[in-house]
Amino acid sequence: MVKLNIRNKILIGFGIILGIALISMITVYTATTNLNKLSQELAPLSKDIGILEKQIKTNQQIEKQLELFILVKSPENKELLLQKVEESQDYLEESVNRNQKNKNILEFKDLHEKGHEQILHLIEEIESKVSTAHINLKVIESYNLIEQITNLGEQISQEKSNQYEAIIIKQKKIIKNLQTNLLISALILIISGSFLSIKISKTLTNPIIKLKDTAEKIGRGNLNILAEIKTNDEIGELANTINLMTNKLKASRKQLQDANKNLEKKIKKRIQDSELKSKEYERMNKFMLGRENVMVKLKSEIKELKEQLKK
To answer: Could you tell me how far CA 197 lies from the centroid of its own chain?
Structure first.
């Protein structure tokens, strides 16, 4: 089994959490980048749609102004008509400059220029007092051209609007996926954090509490208890050290008890020997005292005999 110390276990746990957080950050960054790209595509599309709508509106105004000029051939009406034609031409140039590779825009440009030339030519013919039938024919052609221009403009505008809506749908999808991914990442982080907290608690707190209880029992003199912790880390090593120390204390206690027993035996024997010696001394002392008494008595009798002999 691979040995993992507590520091490595904690680092692995936090590494997992950081990895999940990093994946979430990458997901957010990728989604944000895609959203920015789509937003950059939306801006020109929105402007193109705005220009086309203005151009379509201007063409409708040209149609009305042309009708008014045909009814009332005044310089003011002519000026207003030419002004709207010029305004429409400006919008056309802006659309072409922004969409030079769009075939529909180029077709729209050709049709638009043809319509403008038709209107300008019609104004000249009206002022030249050409026959009414010819003018009516040209008016119908002009109206048809304006209608074609309007229809093509609306078609291009609809295409642009569809592209705009498609990008909006993509953005919503990206945002939805991002929300889902963030929710999943948050759940994973919560579950991982809870799991790591429980794991760290089991790895650190519970064994330390067991070691504390074991140490207190050993401190109260119970050397028959062992720290039952089987982990391949510093706490396991500490438990093994405590067990080894307990076994050594137990062996030392046994040696001390044996030494005390031997000492008690020796002391008891010495006491017994001392008692025997004391009795022997007492017996010898009594014997010596008896002897001295006998000697004193003998000396007294000898003295008495000597006195009797002198008499």
So the answer is: 15
Better pLDDT: 151 or 196: 151
Tell me the CA distances in angstroms from 175 to 161, 170, 260, one per residue in order.
Answer: 21, 9, 84
Catalogue the long-range contacts made by 199-202 (C-beta closer than 8 Å, 24 or more residues apart).
Answer: 199/9, 199/13, 200/9, 200/10, 200/13
- Rounded-to-integer distance, Cα 30 and Cα 75, Å: 61
Predicted TM-score of the model (pTM): 0.56
Quickly count: other Cβ atoms within 10 Å of residue 171's Cβ: 17
Domains assigned to the chain = 6-197 (1.20.120)
Q: Is 225 helix (H, G, I), strand (E, B) or coil?
A: coil
Tokens 């746990």 -> residue: 13
Q: Residue 100 — φ and ψ, nearest 5°?
A: -70, -20
Residues in the chain: 311
Phi, psi at 131, each rounded to 5°: -55, 150
